[in-house]
Each structure stands twice: as structure tokens, then as C-alpha cells.
Amino acid sequence: MSNSSTIANGAAAEEHHAHPAYQRHHFETIEQQFDATNFAMWLFLLTEVMFFGGLFTAYLIMRNWYYPAFVEASHQLNIGWGTANTGVLILSSFTMAMGVWNAEMKRKGGLVLCLVLTFILGLCFLGIKSIEYHEKWEKHHIPGLHYSVSSFVNPASDPEVFAEYHDKPLAPDMAAKTEMYFFLYFAMTGMHALHMIIGICLLGYLIVRANAGDYTTGHVTYIENFGLYWHFVDVIWIFLFPLLYLISRY
Amino acid sequence: MSEIQAESHHEHHIVSPRVYLSILGVLFVATGLTVWMSFIDLGEWHFAPGLTIFWNPVVALAIACTKAVLVVLFFMHVKYSTKLTKLTVVAGIFVFLALMGMTLCDYFSRAWGRW
Amino acid sequence: MSTSTIVSLPDQSTARIPKMNYLTKENGLLSWLLTSDHKRIATLYLISITFFFFIGGALAGLIRLELLTPQSDLMAADTYNKVFTMHGVIMVFFFLVPSVPATLGNFFIPMMIGAKDLALPKINLLSWYLYIVAGFMAIFTMAAGGVDTGWTFTTPLSTHYLNTHVISTGLAIFVAGFSSIFTGLNFIVTIHKMRCPGMTWFRLPLFVWAHYAASILMVLGTPVLAITLVLVVLERTVHIGVFDPALGGDPLLFQHLFWFYSHPAVYIMILPGMGVISEVISTFSRKRVFGYTAVAFSSVAIAVFGFFVWAHHMFIMGISNYAALVFSLLTMLVAVPSAIKIFNWAFTLYKGSITFETPMLYAFGFMGLFTIGGMTGVFLGTTGTDIHLTETYFIVAHFHFVMVGGMLMAFLSGIHFWWPKWTGRMYPEKISQFAAVVTFIGFCFTFFPQFILGTLGMPRRYAAYPPEFQVLNVFSTAGATILGVGYLLPILYLTWSLKYGEIAGDNPWQATGLEWQTQSPPLTENFTELPIMDHEAYDYEWLENKQAKEVASVQ
Fold first, then answer.
1. Rounded-to-integer distance, Cα B115 and Cα C5, Å
2. Hey, of B82, B94, B110, B115, which one would you mutate to test binding to chain C, going by the most C CBs within 10 A of its CB?
3. How many CB atoms neighbour CB C438 within 10 A?
4. Which of C58, C285, C99, C247 lies closest to C159 in space, CA to CA?
5. Among C219, C204, C360, C230, which Cα is nearest to C295's?
6. What mean pLDDT is predicted for residues B83-93?
7. Any B CB within 8 A of A127 CB
8. Rounded distance, CA C516 to CA A230, Å?
9. Which of A55, C2, C63, C299 is the most buried (most CB within 10 A)?
10. Residues belonging to chain A with any Cβ–Cβ distance to chain C shorter than 8 Å
């Protein structure tokens, strides 16, 4: 009982002191604000996990049912680009984490540099993705848009991939299932890319504000919480990469 | 007792760039490893009639999980976070696994035939 | 002193609504549309969901009118399909899911925990705007010709065989889903981080526990619905085949993903109502809730178990026997926590000082009707009987008993209970008790015959039925008319009470919650100083002590 009254007195005393300008009025202390917004961001990330969860479930079922089609279709993805993209995203996670560190250390120059690097790496990722998507368009591997199974029914007709993997020709019905693989490929990487685009736009806004010094006053919430979002998008890719690109390359 | 005395050890623990750099290194190595292993046939294990485990996807997912755990613990600061944050992460993973696991239960057991 | 009512109002000749309150703080349309005050947002929600309730109710009226005769004579079968689909979509997503959380939850959770507002007030306003946008999309869909898949959008009907507005309805529900997610997210953060000093978890009102459990379901379940709707839209536009057997997909995959949300959704709908009932039963029997810990944990248990039972909606759809076995077993388990609550409320009533004001009448209605609805759920969870009862009127009766006899009654109970705090005025007691009884009678006449119809074999979602079912259908429609009157009356007298109702004062029910210790209507910042919680929940002795020390009049 006496605990609560001492705490109450403490809290009452605190609120008469000047609180930081960025503390919202429904919070009693700045720690409460930081904790609450951080927790809220984690809960939002949970919703994103469940959102992607439906796609992962669909993928696992279809891969199980149509494994040969998935293997051969995955050979159509360029492992060089995929690995490069994975590296780019991991590096951008690192630069983002460094950005948070710079904000915590109140180093404006460092923060802006890290955010800009993250921004550039994000654009790099999207650039490589669009190269890959373009490749798919060229080869008629986009489901619903003049999709062609000729690379799977007759793998020899696709010399680059055939030289690497020597795939066996697929029966027509199994070859048709490669379209399912590509649908899931575009749905999952597309949803991921959409989240990257949103992240990059937000990052642009944060760079402007960081440059104005808004995040090096001790108010690291926005940078920290955006960092969580960015790392989450990286984690999704960490799972997409082996599931889509590394099904079986032997 | 009061929740307004928030657990503030979060923002007081600042993770050093050295930690970030080492995690970055491990992540790059793990990526290289998983790509390399996808070119090698790791074989299978027939642990029951009709039930086989293929090692390649298992290894690939294990490496992916390790990478994800490192990002979550260190880049996302969960290692230095409150119990609530850790519980939240676990809860999310748990429900995600429930969705996938129990849906797959249906699909895997469809071929088991009649009682 | 009369013991037939616990109402204690201030002297009406001198009482006034406090000049400074959340309604008078600012004026003008923008002060409402751009507000971050949780109480104003709750009021906006109350008006919006009432609007959608009446649209959904009108559609229900059309259904019952059609079913007066065995032939499909009032409307074509396709039109009938559209009517029951929109009835379901609007009632589930635009009324039941947000009903108690977005109105009573938004208004009272911060007050109950001693906070000034929710943790994220602007996100709260965003929730309401998302709801309104979704509502417009749904109304547009209805005006443009509607959708006839049933609210469950079962594939491949919805993806391959129909030309109606599946996409716009799907997108409307997608947006409404995010409204729900943000509300739940806000509640979880608020309950964890904004409790006042002394407000430990086990001193929280059970209303708060119930909303916490429902919020977990909202946050973790709704995103799966979102991705499912995205997949349906993609299937219809791009024909990718994930639900199309001809292209290698599985229609059942849709159902797994859909029901993964929609089963927890029914708990999202009922848990907040159960929270209301805990508060009302305690207040009107002047007793603490029996087994507080059991009731609190049972809310969380319902939330956790609720995630593992979804395939009981799919027993006849083609899932494997083994999966059906597992899900049936888990369904039996999920019934237990709900039953625990009913027992605990009954034990709360035992040896309590019970009075029968309107909120208590609705609460009694809830206990009886929810029990019946819940027990019939067990028949449906048993695969052997489910094969015969599923897709019949038995299911329709089951879910209307729990949702209308249960949830809607709890909602009305809560609205009446907190009306004095919300508006500063009492509703007229006699007519509201009359309306509660009318609603109960109307409900029983409407939905009890449907259990019988279901066991006799009348299928659901049919505009035409064999003539031998007509008598029971006529009973049901007659009941629906009475029910309609029962729901119309509150709109009328509650609106009337805004101007002419008696001044309520701070605590007309002499209830123990923190929200009852401040003025009615409350100040924008809820409390003039940070409350300290130094007693257990439902501590009527503490209240007596406090009231003994208060100066009630100057004499």
C-alpha cells in the first residue's frame, strides 16, 4: 500500500517537472511512451508474420504436392541475383542497426549516413528484383501473362539453364504446375517488395527529419521502431530465399 | 507494482557496433553456406515405412532459422529487451506454427486412407 | 429504503450535467472528426455501428419475409442469396466484431485502468476511419448489385462460378479487418503499459481481461483473413489457381485459411460481451464475481484454444478423418472455459442481493440463451452428429443463439449499464425493461423453431423449402417481427433520454469500477489527478466506506 503512495507522489512530482517536448500528454513518463510505442510496433510485426503466414502455408502445400515442378521452376531463378539480393538486404539491416546506434549516441551525421546507405541498399534490392522480374517476363514465366511451359516440357530449349542443371522433361500436367510455383514466387516476393517500397518511402521521410536533427535529441523512438520494421522485412527474405531459390540445385 | 515505472533497461542498453559487425559477418557466412549446400545432395533418412526426411530442406531451413534468430536477437535488440517483448515474439512464432502445422496435418493425413 | 432497485440518483431538482465534460470541451465538426479523445471516437463508433446494425436488420427482415412461404416468391433465388450474404457480412464485420470493443471498450478501458487515453489515440481514430471507408465500400457493393457467395466466400464458388461483386466485398472486409487489428493492438498496449499505480493485473475489472483476450485474437487472427481475401481477389483477377483443382490448387486451402480467422472471430465477438456480463452481474447482485481468477484465465484460455479448432467448420468438406478427430477433440476442450464463466456467474448470483434493472434483465437473457447456444455447439463439434446438422438451420439457430441471444444482449446490457456514465443521463427504466422482455420473447420465437427445423433437415441458405417446414418458418418470422420491435425501442428511448432523461450523477448503480468514481459524462482527460488503485476489484466494502465518508448534502 505504501508503495503505491510513494510511487504516486513520485509520479505526481515528476509531472510537475518539465517533460521532454516530444512526450505526448496521455503518457505519464517518457519511458512509458517509449515502452508503449515499441511494444505496439512489435504487435504490428506479429500481424505481418500472420499475414505472410497464409502465403507460406500455401507454398508448403503446393511444394509438397508438385515437387518436381517446383524444383525445375526454381532452376529458372538466377542464384547469383538471389544471393546478391540476400547479401544486400542483410547489409542494409546492418546499416539500419548502425543508424539506431548513431541515434542513441546522438550523432546526427552518422545517423543520416546510415539511413542514406540503407535507402540506397533498399533501392539496390528493388533494382535487382526488377531485373529478375524482367527476365521472367522475357521468358514467358509470368502466370496469367502468356505463360509458357516450353522450358519445362523441353528443357533443352533453354540452353543456359539446361547446361547448369540438366533437368528431365516434365510431363505436361506436372509442367503446368510450374505456373503455380511462379504464382507463389510472384505473390511472395511481390508482397515482400511492396513492404520494401513502403519501407523505402518511410526511410526517405526519416532521412529528411534526421537531417533536421529531430532524432538525435534522445528521441530515438521513430528510428528504433522503423528499424524493427526494416529488420522484419529482412527476416521474411531470409526465409523466402532458401524456399524459393534453393529448393534443389544438385 | 506500478506499471508507470516502466522497465527502462531497454533504451539504457546500447548495443555496440562491434556486435553488429560480427553478426553481419556470421550472416554473410551463413548465406554462403546455405547456397553452397544447395548444390550438394545430402541424402535422406527413411525413419518409418512411407515416411522419409530429406536433409537438404531441413538444413536450409535450419540455417534460415539461425539467421533469423540472430537478426531478431541482435539487430532487433530482443536479447536486451524486456520479458514482454520476448514473450510477444514467442507468441507470434507459436501462432504462426499453429497455422502452418495444423493445416499441414490435414494435408499430410489425407493419404492415410480409411480407418 | 426500497430494495427493489439499487439506483441512486442525485436530487433531480438541483442536479445538473457538469458543464465541463468531454462533450462540451470543444465544438464543431472538426473537433469530432479529428479528435484523439477515446470517448469521442467511441461515440462516433456507436453511431456508425447502429447504422450498420439497422441495415443488417433490414436484410434479416427480408430473409424472414421470404421464408414465410415455401416458394421463392418474394425474390428470385439469386437475390435471396445476395440478401443473406450481405446480412452476414454486415452483421459480422460491421456490427458484431466492433460492437463492444470499439464502443464500450474504447470508452471505458482507459477509465477502468486509470489512464487518460488509450496508448495510441491517433491509431484509434485511424481505426474508425478505416471502418467508415470499409463501410462505404460495402454499401457501394450492395448498391452495385451485391454479392451472393454467403459471408463465408467458399471457393470455388466465389472464385470461379459467380459474376457478382466478390472483389469489392473482399476488399471492404480487408479494410474493416485492419480497423479491427488496430483496435486490438491499441488495447493490448494500453492494458500492458498504461495501468495506474496499484492497478495490478488481478485488480483489473474482468471487462478488461475479456477485451485483452479478444484483442490477442484480433491481432493474430485477422491478418490471416486479410491474406485470404487477397488470394481470392488474385484468383478472380489473375486466375492463379491456388484454389482451383483444375490448375492444381485446393479449394479447401481457402477454407483452412478463412476459418483460421473466422473461428477466433466468433470469440472476438463474444469475449467482450462476456466482459460486460461480469460487470453487470456483479453490480446488480452487489457481490464480487465468484472465482475472479478463473474467469480471468478462462478468457485467456478461450483465446488460446480458439486458435486450434477452426476445422470444425469443415468436417464435411473433405479434410482427413484424422484431422477431423483432432479438431473435434480440441473443440470439446474450448467449450470448457466458456462453461466455467457461466458457472462462476451463477455462483456470483447465489446469495447476492439481486435487483432487476434493465442491464440485469439482458444479462439474465444472456446467461440462458448463451448456454443453450453453447451446448448446441457441442452437438456440432461432435463429428457424428455434425454430419447431419451442418449446413441446416440447426447451425443458423446455434450461431444466432450465441451471437444474438448472447452477444447482442450483452451489448444492450452494456449500453444500458454505461449509458448514465456516457451521457450523464438515465434511460427510462420501465420502457427499457419492457423492451428487454420483448426482445427475449421475440428472440425465442424467432430462433428456437430453427433448431427444430435443422434437426428435421431444412437446409440453410435456401430461398425455397419443402412445404412441411412452413409452420415453423411462420413462427420464426412472427418472432422476428417482435424482435424487431424490441430492437427499435431502445433507439427511440435512448435518443429521448439524451434530452429528457434524469440526471445520473457519478455513480447511479453504486458500482465499484474506477470509471464510476468520476463525473458523468467524464472530463476529456478522465481524471483530475492520477488515480491510485488500493483495493481489489469488485470491492463493495471499499465502496461503502468511501460513500460513508462522502458529503452528499449540505445540511
1. 61
2. B110
3. 18
4. C247
5. C204
6. 95
7. no
8. 44
9. C299
10. 1, 4-5, 7-8, 11-12, 15, 25-28, 32, 35-37, 39-40, 43-44, 46-55, 57-58, 61-62, 65-66, 143-144, 176-177, 179-180, 183-184, 187
Span B12-39, average pLDDT:
92
The residue type of C400 is H
- Cell 536477437 found at: B73
**Which of the listed CATH numbers 3.40.50.620, 3.40.50.720, 1.20.120.80, 3.40.630.10 matches domain A44-245?**
1.20.120.80
Mean pLDDT per 10-residue run, chain C (555 residues)? 77 90 93 95 97 96 96 93 96 96 97 95 97 96 93 91 92 97 97 95 96 97 96 89 89 96 96 97 95 96 95 93 94 94 96 95 97 95 94 96 96 97 96 97 97 96 95 97 96 96 94 93 93 93 89 65
Residue B115 has pLDDT above 70, yes or no: no
Q: List CB contacts (< 8 A) between B75 and chain A.
A: 93-94, 96-97, 227, 231, 234
Residue position matching grid coordinates 524493427: A228
For chain C, domains (ranges, CATH) are 33-355+500-541 (1.20.210.10)
At A12 the pLDDT is 44
- Going by C-alpha positions, the residue among C479, C502, C481 that lies closest to residue C432 is C502
DSSP B72: I
- Residues from chain A contacting residue B17 (CB–CB below 8 Å): 98, 101
Q: How far is A136 from chain B (nearest CA, A)?
A: 21
CB within 8 Å of chain A, chain C residues 219-258: 219-224, 226-228, 231, 234, 238-242, 247-250, 253, 256-257
Single-letter amino acid, residue A84: A
User: Which residues of chain C from 84 to 123 reach within 8 Å of chain A, CB to CB?
Assistant: 115-121, 123
pTM above 0.90, yes or no: yes
Which one-letter DSSP state was computed for residue C196?
A: P
Per-residue model confidence as pLDDT tens digits over C205-244? 999 999 999 999 999 999 999 999 999 999 999 888 899 9
